[in-house]
Specification:
The complex is a heterodimer of chains A (572) and B (340).
Chain A lengths: L1 H19 L6 E2 L10 E6 L14 H10 L4 E3 L6 E3 L2 E6 L5 E6 L13 H12 L8 H4 E2 L2 E2 L1 E6 L2 E5 L7 H4 L8 H9 L22 E7 L3 E6 L5 E2 L11 E6 L3 H9 L5 E2 L4 H11 L4 E8 L2 E7 L10 H10 L2 H10 L2 H9 L3 E3 L23 H10 L3 E3 L2 E3 L7 E7 L3 H15 L4 E7 L1 H11 L4 E7 L9 H4 L18 H15 L3 H18 L3 E2 L1 E10 L2 E2 L18 E2 L1
Parallel strand pairs in A: 1-13, 2-14, 21-22, 21-23
Antiparallel strand pairs in A: 3-4, 5-6, 6-10, 7-8, 9-10, 11-12, 12-14, 15-25, 16-25, 17-23, 17-24, 18-25, 19-20, 26-27
Helix pairs in contact in A: 3-6, 10-12, 11-13, 16-17
Chain B lengths: L1 H20 L1 H4 L20 E3 L5 E12 L7 E10 L1 E5 L11 E5 L18 H37 L1 H16 L2 H11 L6 H15 L2 H15 L2 H8 L4 H37 L11 H5 L5 H6 L5 H24 L5
Antiparallel strand pairs in B: 1-2, 2-3, 4-5
Helix pairs in contact in B: 1-3, 1-12, 3-4, 3-6, 3-7, 3-9, 4-7, 6-9, 7-9, 9-12
Chain lengths: 572, 340
């Protein structure tokens, strides 16, 4: 018996040795070397809906899942460029259609199971499976043809695209690699979309991220702990992450988050409103926390008119007003009348940028710097309207048929900033003799009107791309796309500039020459600024804060703004 | 003692309503005029003594400007004094009364914001005065409406009894039991988007007034039932008096006390209802001021914590309420314990 046991032990150790022989191929981080220990508390505005990377759509879920998992190629939030992650290197064929990825060897999931090419192929299979209805699927299907991932060897994977795709490398970002050993059964049975809820026991969840799930208290907090198998080390060779625990607490509104942060109950805060930022600033002098204004983010707020082709006889009042909305001169006049600087000052306390087009200065790689800054000019607005046949009677603007120009502007009642912007626009338009009514609506009602019934005249909304690359804007600018907000349903022929935008957007998607692509997207911005399918208003700055003692705090304007380098954060 | 209090309450109410009615004259600026360089400017200080220590009999103010690079912090420009002028005439201003006469003002570029400005740089005092017109009169009109409806239905129920009484009183129970706030949100969702301020005001009055007919109706019914059985009413009926005559001559006067007491209780309650509904975005819309929609700014933490003058519309409710309650107590004491 004893002999048997000792043989078993020998076998086990030699086996472990054999596996250990492949020295894990670790990534060395270039951040400041810190010290281990401590916990970090971060507030989420709502509970994550799921921990399943395949089905997650809401921000809180992404915020958590991003810490539990890792991707093959990662977008460095700091430089906005791609860099190696689980793939240590990759090559692209000259035609831009074939990628060969070299995986890091000897890595393990957070439950200790080894990671290899089979997991990669399995992950792609999960994201592409229609039964799982993954939001990532849209990104991985280029022009109707899904991307194909093939195993070339235990640590080599080929990824084939049907046609060249300019931003292909960026597709891999945030595409979490899944553990085949845990999920294969569920995927085979078509139940993958149901796995990894918040109630799932932690041992059944494993990823390649810096943390793993430790405990969850419904409605209160989710605690992550250090993943002992993580694949990054710091410049001194010490295994990352530094933090023992990462705690997500649930704090439903921004004001409450600010109060908690101010009281020291949370360690980080992101996307603070400018007003609350100045409240926090008053106390920052004490030195417990520091605040950072990262400048313009990627979010752009805009006013747009309902340009949908409405069914005959439905909503006749709106159809009548669309005769104004469809005139470029009318939209240009409205745009010229708006006091964007006033919005920046009153709504964002100066922490925002007036926009002339949809790309914000925060997008350093792609913004068209040659476009003029929007200038407010009531005389120009009046000249444009007069030229288009509008007339003034007793100071009120009337169209050529004699009807007074008035419309309603709907916006999200829960977003004080947007309501304020609409109210400023209302006062500006009164100077043109236009009566605009601001109607704050509950968000669901607003989205219903914009997306489904098209029962609105004008709206103030905001969009934010998750990435700087123009490929993410395809669904906004190409006509017929799901986020082509101002004209979701069109039947008539497109205007020449609309056709040109469509064409440019489609071309940039497959243009591999970076400079040519930039020229194409510059032209799109020019066309938007000139024709104003939506009237860009303001982009708010990204405002963040962290406790002073937090090391390696390097916030970025790309999501997740403050937690993207959670593996490097440490307490001094 | 009670008499003195009642007089004081009456005076307060008269003053407040008079001020609201003469808002065009009392308010130094149109309530919707934005000063985009002066958001959340603190109340302007009225001064009598200048920098050199000289005393001026006519109060004066200094112009203020935002400190460089610090939004929301203001500095006085002491180089020039701007004396407060009384009975100033303003030409052709959209919000001014026909004659454009205002009680006081200062020369441009200085501005006089006795109660500070809001986030759009609009004068709080002017908004408070104009807002009072909406808030106070919504309360009054809604009370008239609710009491009329309550009186008619209560009298019908009490006088005729039987199935009329049953139907009316059961529907009164129903009205009292409905979750009104949620229902109102639903109602707002189906209404057309474009509601002009005047329509919104009337709608608000209608909603507040009609929702709450049940309580006065019950009280009136009680009084009517007891009055109906009085010997002189029975006698009048015996002499062949018709229903209408009985109600007009003998029953209605009995209910007057209840109505008056109810009125003095309902007005403040309805003012508060307007404030609540506007606070929740169901009332009069921006830029027209009402005390309720002025208070919505307090939903934001930074406003609540940084600018005390934004609380003033809430503070203004206190004396109005106290006066109404004092009045209702006095009425209650006079007409007897016929009401709760």
């Amino acid at each position: 018996m004893r002999v048997l046991l000792s043989i078993a032990i020998t076998a086990w150790t030699s086996c472990a040795f054999a596996q250990g022989a492949v020295a894990p191929d670790l990534l060395r981080s270039d951040g400041e070397a810190g010290k281990r220990g401590g916990r970090l508390v971060f507030a989420l505005h709502s509970e994550p809906k799921t921990l399943n990377p395949v089905t997650a759509v809401d921000t809180p879920s992404h915020e958590v899942i991003g810490r539990l998992t890792a991707d093959l190629i990662h977008i460095d939030r700091d430089t906005q460029r791609t860099r190696p992650a689980l793939a240590r290197a990759w090559t692209v064929s000259p035609d831009g259609r074939h990628y060969t990825l070299e995986l890091r060897r000897g890595l393990r999931f957070s439950d200790g199971h080894p990671f290899d090419a089979d997991d990669v192929v399995f992950s792609f299979q999960c994201y592409l499976d229609e039964r799982n209805a993954s939001p990532q699927r849209d990104l991985l299907v280029v022009d109707g043809k899904p991307i194909v991932a093939r195993k070339l060897g235990p640590y080599r994977v080929a990824v084939d695209l049907d046609q060249p795709y300019a931003a292909a490398e960026r597709l891999f970002d945030s595409l979490a690699m899944l553990p085949r050993h845990l999920l294969e059964k569920a995927q085979r049975e078509g139940r993958l979309a149901e796995v990894w809820g918040l109630g799932t026991p932690p041992p059944e969840i494993a990823g390649l991220g810096p943390f793993r799930v430790k405990a969850y208290t419904p409605g209160d907090r989710l605690i992550l702990e250090r993943n002992p198998h993580y694949w990054k080390v710091d410049s001194a060779g010490q295994a990352l992450p530094y933090l023992d625990e990462l705690v997500f607490v649930l704090v439903p509104n921004e004001d409450a988050q600010v109060i908690r942060f101010k009281a020291g109950e949370t360690d980080l805060i992101t996307r603070v409103s400018a007003a609350n930022f100045s409240v926090l600033e008053a106390d920052a002098a004490v030195g417990r926390y520091r605040l950072q204004d990262l400048g313009a983010g990627l979010e752009y707020t805009f006013l747009f008119f309902n340009l949908n082709d409405l069914d005959k006889g439905r909503l006749p009042e709106i159809a009548r007003k669309q005769a104004w909305f469809r005139q470029r001169a009318f939209r240009q006049a409205v745009s010229a009348a708006l006091d964007r600087q006033g919005m920046v000052r009153l709504v964002y306390q100066g922490r925002g940028t007036a926009l002339g087009t949809h790309v914000t200065p925060g997008n350093k790689l792609w913004v068209n710097a040659a476009l003029p800054r929007p200038q407010r000019s009531i005389p120009r607005a009046r000249a444009l309207l007069a030229e288009a046949g509008f007339v003034w009677k007793d100071g009120r603007l009337h169209d050529a048929a004699g009807a007074p120009v008035e419309f309603t502007v709907v916006t999200n009642a829960a977003n004080a900033q947007r309501v304020q912007m609409a109210t400023i626009a209302q006062a500006d338009l009164r100077e043109l003799g236009i009566e605009a009514q601001v109607v704050p609506l509950e968000n669901r009602g607003l989205l219903d009107r914009v997306f489904k019934t098209h029962d609105y005249e004008a709206a103030v909304m905001a969009l934010a791309n998750g990435d700087v690359d123009p490929s993410g804007e395809m669904n906004v600018w190409v006509s017929g796309s799901p986020t082509h907000l101002w004209a979701l349903s069109t039947s008539g022929p497109l205007a020449p500039w609309e056709t040109e935008i469509d064409d440019l957007m489609r071309r940039q998607l497959v243009t591999l020459d970076g400079r040519e692509r930039k020229r194409q997207y510059d032209r799109v911005q020019e066309l938007v600024a000139e024709n104003l399918p939506l009237i860009p208003l303001v982009s708010p700055n990204v405002l963040v804060g962290a406790k002073t003692a937090l090391g390696n705090f390097r916030p970025a304007i790309l999501d997740p703004t403050v937690l993207w380098n959670a593996d490097e954060l440490f307490w001094r | 003692m009670s008499g003195r209090r009642t007089t004081a309450a009456g005076l307060v109410l008269a003053a407040v309503h008079l001020a609201a009615l003469s808002a065009f004259f009392l308010a130094p600026y149109p309530p919707t005029e934005q000063n985009r360089t002066l958001p959340y400017a603190p109340p302007t200080r009225l001064r009598f003594v200048d920098d050199s220590g000289r005393l001026h009999l006519r109060p004066f103010v200094y112009a203020v400007a935002e400190e460089e690079g610090a939004t929301g912090r203001y500095r006085e420009d002491r180089r020039q004094r701007f004396p407060v002028r009384f009975l100033v005439r303003e030409g052709g201003d959209a919000g001014a009364s026909p004659e454009g006469l205002r009680l006081f003002g200062v020369d441009e570029p200085a501005r006089i914001f006795l109660l500070g400005t809001d986030g759009f740089g609009r004068d709080q005092l002017s908004r408070l005065l104009h807002g009072a017109r909406i808030s106070l009169f919504a309360g009054l009109l809604a009370t008239v409406l609710s009491l009329t409806a309550g009186w008619v239905l209560g009298t019908l129920a009490g006088f005729y009894g039987g199935w009329i009484d049953t139907i009316l009183m059961r529907s009164a129970d129903l009205f009292l039991a409905l979750p009104w706030l949620y229902l109102l949100f639903a109602v707002r969702a189906v209404l057309p988007l474009h509601v002009s301020p005047a329509q919104a005001f009337l709608l608000l009055v209608l909603i507040i007034g009609l929702v709450d007919w049940a309580r006065p109706a019950r009280l009136v019914r009680g009084v009517v039932i007891s009055a109906r059985e009085r010997p002189y009413v029975l006698a009048a009926r015996g002499f062949g008096a018709g229903d209408l005559y009985l109600i007009r001559r003998h029953i209605a006067p009995q209910t007057l006390g209840v109505l008056l007491t109810q009125a003095s209780l309902l007005v403040p309650q309805y003012i508060l209802a307007e404030v609540t509904l506007s606070f929740l975005g169901l009332g009069v819309a921006e830029p027209v001021p009402s005390w309720g929609n002025m208070l919505t700014a307090l939903q934001r933490y930074h406003v609540m914590s940084s600018y005390w003058w934004m609380w003033l519309p809430g503070l203004a409710l206190v004396p109005v309420f106290l006066a109404y309650f004092a009045l209702s107590e006095a009425l209650h004491a006079r007409v007897g314990p016929a009401s709760p």
